[in-house]
Amino acid sequence: MCSDLLLMEIIELGLKENWKQFTLLVIINAFVGGMVGLERSILPQIAEVEFAIAAKTAILSFIIVFGIVKAITNYFAGAFANKLGRKNLLVIGWLFGLPVPFVLMFAPSWDWIVAANVLLGINQGLAWSSTVVMKIDLVGEKQRGFAMGLNEFAGYLAVAGVAFLTGYIAAEYGLRPYPFILGIGLEVLGLLGSIFLIKDTRKHVAAENSFSDTPILKNIFWETTWKHPNLGAVTQAGLVNNLNDGMA
Question: Is 229 found in the same domain as 188?
Fold first, then answer.
């Protein structure tokens, strides 16, 4: 009991109390989102112009592969975060993303582009999920919704911004390699920032667990899919939102 109280005195939860780390995580997640925007505008053009792929289903194979891999990685990210640590998972996510800009730059065939999206799916599943979990850890129970909102705002704003920039660069200087140089910058800044600036939030989790009475879910998949009304509704809304994004 004494150790729990001491932990609560040392570790404070809340956005105001942890605004520096929270801001860094928002910036890091913007880099993560930028990696998705890197290919959105120009991969279909590369498929048609450089690889003579005309079928829309073949062109969109990179989105399908990315979505499946990211979904699977997302599912296991929470368990990995508890076992490996949030910061470690974030760094691992960036390491998976390191080859992506180079593969997109120099891929000799469309299969290489699809393979790059396997790595990008793992990168997004681990890195994006890690920033979400760490922000929630920092702010505590009362400000989780706001934390999630800021996370998604930063991530998707970066997706749109980088998609615009790569499209502009491609129009001015060609489809490859120049648009993807931006991705190298995002990777380097994201990885170095995650290693040297981000701190793990395990202590914040322990501090909240010392007074939280929220029950642990017995079966995460079934509870969040349909058994728990609120969680099921949130999951369905997230599915529709991601379907809209993929279709667009």
Answer: no
Number of domains the chain is built from:
2
What would the pLDDT profile of 19-39 be if each residue is shown by its tens digit?
999 999 999 999 999 999 999
How much is the pTM?
0.90
Considering the domain architecture, whether residues 197 and 225 belong to the same structural domain is answered as no
The string of pLDDT tens digits covering residues 69-122 is 999 999 899 889 989 999 999 999 999 999 999 999 999 999 999 999 999 999
Long-range contacts of range 187-190, CB-CB < 8 Å, 24 or more positions apart?
187/31, 187/35, 187/94, 187/97, 187/98, 187/100, 187/101, 189/31, 190/28, 190/31, 190/32, 190/35, 190/94, 190/97, 190/127
Per the structure, the complete domain to which residue 162 belongs is given by: 13-201
